[in-house]
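User
New here, explain this?
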Amino acid sequence: MTEAWERQKGESDLSYSRFCIYKDLSPEKRSLQNVVEILKKMTKSDQNSPPNKKIPSETALKNMSQKWRWVERARLYDAHEQLKESLKYEKEFTKENKKIINLIKKLINYCEDVLDDIINNNNDYALTTRLSLLSTLMGIIDRANFNIRTCYGKPAKYNDELNVNSKNEVSLKENPNVMNKSDKELEELLCVNDDFNMEEFLEQQETK
């Protein structure tokens, strides 16, 4: 199949070469007058060109342009080039996106190791320190989750319930984020030893 910007059946070499000059001009500079000016410069710089070589007029080019649909073909060429450029950027984006996904996966794996250390209290941290570290870590994980879901083209937040009203309009109800949990709830997540009384600890803190 012959593309619109390629030489058409019955189109002479001369006509096609002039169309190519027109086509290769940027859209804002694409005009028959500019084609004439380019042909003049080409003739002047060509040492083998006969001194009396005739340069086509704008009228002659207009007739040629209308016969071979220069404007339409040039627009199709522009659309083709824009699509090529878009696909090139899409390929580059996909490549870089994979790098970002791998980096976020490494971060999540690291957070998993740190979380185990906090829960097992490998560094003998005080309870309040562990709670603070856990809160910070959850913030990092929450952000990493946001970024990796975005990279995969998923909604930024998890949703667990669909609400449908009488107009059949659907909305999503979000899960509560772990960052909204109280200190007591976070403490329970840490699975500290059973002898520790969190309520007593909090009361002591209030009386200080």
Remarks:
- The first strand starts at residue 159 and ends at 164.
- Strands lie at 159-164, 170-174.
- The chain is about 60% helix and 5% strand.
